[in-house]
Design goal:
single chain; six-stranded mixed beta sheet; binds zinc ion; Spore Coat Polysaccharide Biosynthesis Protein SpsA, Chain A; two-stranded antiparallel sheet; globular; 4 helices; 180 residues
Length: 180
């Protein structure tokens, strides 16, 4: 059991986590270090909820918690998902079953199931996530994961991917973050 890990189960937007998620969490983490995040502010954008889960849930947890796990509602962990805790990066994303080009690069990162070091989150000035848009504001160019990936790489931190989980959707954009 990893008692230094805080778990934030992202129940947004539907308001629940699954029994399969609960079973996996209780098998691997201390129940006292587990929280759910449900975005009460329904007008806030998804990226605001991502940032709020970090600022208002994760970083407020007791100091002995040195790593965090963030898990989206539509993820089902597998027996290989814990491998993200063996990977030697500041931020590690768990791969999912979408193979196209989503995991094409070593530093590909998406935020459906990911692990972060507390120090690295604190060393990253907020906002952690934002949505890249076209200059005229009509198109989302990528998912918010790429924005985060590019930001922490610029700050000199390490980011990558490991393990495997099942994910119900590809996300807004399923690229391998290759052009940063
Ligand atoms: Zn993504």
């Amino acid at each position: 059991m990893l008692s230094h890990v805080g778990v934030i189960a992202f129940s947004y937007p539907k308001g629940y986590v699954t029994f399969r998620q609960m079973r996996w969490v209780l098998e691997n983490f201390d129940i006292d270090n587990c929280r759910t995040y449900f975005g009460e502010n329904r007008r806030a954008e998804l990226v605001c909820h991502r940032n709020s889960a970090i600022k208002n849930v994760a970083l407020l947890m007791p100091k002995h918690i040195t790593e965090f796990l963030f898990m989206d509602r539509d993820v089902t962990p597998t027996e290989r998902s814990m491998e993200i805790f063996d990977a030697d990066f500041d931020f590690v994303s768990c791969r999912d079953q979408f193979k196209e080009n989503k995991w094409a690069t070593k530093s590909a990162f998406h935020n459906h199931l990911w692990r972060a070091k507390r120090e690295a989150l604190l060393d990253t000035p907020p906002p952690w996530f934002d949505m890249p848009r076209s200059r005229d504001g009509t198109i989302n160019l990528n998912c918010e994961c790429k924005w985060f990936r590019d930001k922490v790489v610029t700050l000199g931190m390490t980011i990558g991917n490991a393990g495997m989980c099942h994910h119900d959707s590809t996300g807004l954009w399923c690229g391998g973050n290759e052009d940063a």
